[in-house]
């Protein structure tokens, strides 16, 4: 009879069932998860911890190896400033250099509609468990003008409160438009790197303070070129980013400085953000007229949806005991 044991598994009062089926013994270990919510952390205790930690450490090693490979590429080019972000003789573009190399140990799921509106989320099934347990979770979403399918699925399948913002519209987009939900809040406000009443912009810190939050489980941004100044502000004021994961559409401006952008990217990584998904938005490449916004060429893939997990804080997806490499 072959029994399987899970690393770092605390059996305690765990129930073990041995079921003999056609002469084969199958071993089942019930998984017990206890969440102790503090002000801004979630500690996961139980049989899953060892498996999750092993997955996180393996992902961190793969991510760090990709970082070293990236730096070696820059050295061979003669420096970051020698890299052509939209391709050179080696057919390498910016997105190849910062491709997601970290795996979400709980698995990832695309949440929301097909195409624009859907985002890749780490551990969505973990959030679904809050529907049964009643455990709290918080989602902030910026940019909900035309499509709120991402927010709708969180409201439908989790216990999360969703705070949605968009300064360009007076109400949230479909399918939530016209529907009331006690766990949904919408305000016609945009996210900025500083408060600006004239432009209807507020910083993340201001909004979190107004709402009484110190921690967000999910932060989603689709704020049309404002994400880069917002990131720069995050890097100035936060030692630890106040969110568990981030979904953001990155829009490259024109003119574009790759060395400046890459410097920001590495500082985000140093703060613990690890990209686990990237999805190129090809619609602008195929359909936008020249001169739309800051886009000068339809051939350039300048919009990419990224998803990050924050590994520098213990939370719903990162149990205590994980130590980032940088």
UniProtKB/TrEMBL annotation:
It comes from the Eukaryota. The keyword rRNA-binding does not apply. Residues 98-283 form the Methyltransferase domain. Keywords: Membrane, Methyltransferase, Transferase, Transmembrane, Transmembrane helix. The chain crosses the membrane at residues 16-34. The keyword Membrane applies. One of its GO terms (molecular function) is methyltransferase activity. GO terms for biological process: methylation. This is Methyltransferase-like protein 24. It comes from Orchesella cincta (Springtail). The lineage of its organism: Eukaryota, Metazoa, Ecdysozoa, Arthropoda, Hexapoda.
